[in-house]
Amino acid sequence: MTFLATVFVFGLLIVFHEFGHFIVAKMSGVRVLEFSVGMGPKIFGYQRGPTLYALRALPIGGYVRMAGMDPEENKESQGRTEHADSDESVDFKENKEVRGNTYDSGSFSNKSISKRAAIIFAGSFMNFVLAFLLFIYIYAIVGTPMFTNIIGDVIPERPAAMAGIEPGDRVVAVDDRPVSNWAELIQEIHPRAGEELRLLIDRQGSVQEFRVTPMLDPERNVGQLGIVVDEGTIYHEKQSLLTSIRLGLMNTYMLTSLILESLFQMITGAAPADVGGPVMIVSEIGKAAETGWSNLLMLAAILSVNLGIINLLPIPALDGSRLIFLGIEAVRGKPIDPAKENMIHLIGFAFLIALMILIAYRDVIRLMGGG
Q1: Active site residue 18
Q2: What Pfam families is this protein classified in (predicted)?
């Protein structure tokens, strides 16, 4: 289950990210040479026009290869005429008049800075779109897991127990405000520590009134009655499409803000740099898959936003650094030397691989109970 869930989540994130690059490149007139999901040896490939659509053996990433994307390729192609292969004739029709020239209108490097920036940014943007769509699907189709207003257990010597409330009681109202599930009940209790509440409780068909005062939980700073949810009463509540869209936008925005705030705190030292790598992610995917489809999709949405944000960081070899180089090109009026840019990306890629190995090692130690 963990393997299948991991392939599904990683595949979903990769396909959406690379499709963002792919579709904007196509819309911008860039000739896409390959759209690959996975890395390493090719398992399956389908050639359509100039584009090879491939599935590769290692599910650790993907890529879209475009003509003129590699700075070294652009440098080497100067002074050399580009010719079309037989299966690329359609895409080269627009270039018939320049075949004797070195200019290639389908090259990434020959597009405006704004178009190149849009192509690069589109990958991360699609990760935010994926999270938004997943939230809509969760709320409208799957439904969010909810618990009913039935009490599963009562903690001894706490306010509820001392008031005579028992397991199996169903809270139907708090101070004449109806509650239909556990979340609504908690919303009434948590902010009212020290304030007497009047609970209407259905006990085996007989509605009774109980007066109880929540005690303050100093750690969470919320009111508590000492009642525990009945986990056997879980159900899924579906929302309307409009409500799901609103909740999807709200959750995507709030999740993005939370991740950015956490990154800022880690960078400034206000919070420990406690991050998980691929091993920990696979472990969490396995746990989510065991608890249900809704939780797996929720985790996929969270990971998608994380991937979108991380790819926009100004770290060499990531999309964020390529956007920085385009910004420098816009200011200077000419691109940075291709050899220097390639070297920077190469160093950045080596650093990322080393960091991933280190984090993966730490994840294994933590999962084995080594702290």
Answers
A1: yes
A2: PDZ_6 (PF17820), Peptidase_M50 (PF02163)
Q: Of 128-142, 150-164, 278-292, which gets the smallest average pLDDT?
A: 278-292
pLDDT single digits (tens) 35-76:
999 888 899 899 999 999 999 887 777 889 999 876 555 554
pLDDT tens profile 93-120: 444 444 445 667 888 988 999 999 999 9
CB 360 within 8 A of CB 275: no
Token pair for 138: 């969760």
| Three-state secondary structure call for residue 17 | helix
Q: Which two structure tokens, joined as six digits, stand for 250?
A: 């709200």
Sequence spans of domains, the chain: 2-140+294-367, 148-237
Q: What is the pLDDT of residues 298-319, one digit of tens each?
A: 999 999 999 999 899 888 888 9
Please measure the distance between the N-terminal and C-terminal CA atoms of the chain and give it in whole angstroms. Answer: 26
171 three-state secondary structure? strand
DSSP state of 46: E
Angle, alpha carbons 228-231-237 (nearest 5°): 115
* Domain spanning 148-237: CATH superfamily: PDZ domain (2.30.42.10)
How far are the Cα atoms of 119, 220, 266, 329, 359 from residue 275, in angstroms, in the given order? 29, 24, 10, 33, 8
Q: How far apart are CA 139 and CA 146, in angstroms?
A: 12
